[in-house]
Amino acid sequence: MSGIYEKVIKNTKKIEALLEEKLTAEGKGLYEKTVSVEAFVDQDIVKKIRRIATIRNKLMHEDEFELANTDSFEEDCKDVIYYLSTTEFDQSITPKPAGIKQSRNARVCKSCGADTKPILHITSSGGIFTNESRRHICSICGETMYTSGGGITFMAFIIMCFIILAFIDGILKEIGVPTGLSTILALVSMILWIMKSKLVNLFLELWKRKKKSEKA
Length: 216
Description:
This protein is mainly α and 216 residues long. The protein folds into three domains: 2-93, no CATH class; 115-149, no CATH class; 154-215. It is 57% helix and 10% strand. It has six helices and five strands. A three-stranded antiparallel beta sheet has the order 3-4-5, with no helix packed on it. A two-stranded antiparallel ribbon has the order 1-2. Helix 1 (2-23) packs parallel to helix 4 (70-86) and helix 3 (43-61) crosses helix 4 (70-86). The chain is elongated and about 85 Å long. The two termini are 35 Å apart. Mean pLDDT is 78; it is low at 94-104.
């Protein structure tokens, strides 16, 4: 493993050095340097650099990670190094800003930094009471970018509301509340419970956004 580790570090450092030397790339690591100059670089090479950077990060941060195909990795490194070494880049031309895609479905992968349209993977088909669950996978590094769907259906929600309403109504009748009044009180209680749940979710979302902005 030490030999592979040395190869990965040596190649990534060489690529970073070439990005700085030939394109005056800026950033902390290979991803950030690539993003800063990707508008000037062939997109196939950009994808290869991102794959290389993903492997490097996994090797550094994941104890159980093993490089499945060393030949493919070395081939990508050779292609990138050759391209960067032999290409004369004209940075006087103002290109389209990096990261802007035509597809509305393109998103930035938090794992590899790629701005790509994710691949859809259905994790649960759903049914009468549950919605379909989906994983959106990065087409570059294969990591999950985000999830969508899931949860209960509207029909399940309505049924649940009727059950809760009947349960509260029954308790109120047991303690002596008149029938008509117990139904009204049960309905009001259920509405307040739903509103409280929505408000809690809203406050949690606002808190998460605040934390993200503080980190940024």
